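your task:
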Amino acid sequence: AADTINLIPQDFFAELCEQIIQHLNHKIPGVNTAELCQRIQTSGIEINVGDLAKIANIISFLFSTAARNNLSTEELITSLGNAVSALPKHAVQVIRHVWNEQGKSISAEDARTMATVGQFVDIKWKLGVAMSSDTCRSLKYPYVTVTLKVADPSGQITDKSFEMTIPQFKNFFRQFKEMAAVLETV
């Protein structure tokens, strides 16, 4: 992990840490590591989204644990212990600065009750028609493709896609209408 952190420029690492703090404060639904990774790659740094997601998980765990234990900045840096020597100096400086500036905004109660399920961020859909395949000349089969953007408990934003037949989509839509009706009564 320290080697990967070493690849990330200080400004991007600071942005990652700030997004994690905002996520822990429930100000944003999650950290979009795919978008951040693309920007880092555009700047000429070779890093993959999986490695960046692991770093985000580590930092999120670090900050939420520090909030749960109500650690001061110095206690946080001290508790990192041996990891501090393995971490790049710029990373330790960023962690120290971000925690010092914004760490107290995370309540210990919020850190204890962080969601253990994902959080819905966005939905996109499109209607398509399969015209033919190598085994069937004339399908003319309509379908709906749905892409859900979900933030997992650690804050990583991922896309989940699935296809439905028209009858499946109608059932899906009916269930959403039922949920909306129940929500109206609350």
The chain is about 55% helix and 15% strand. The mean pLDDT is 83.
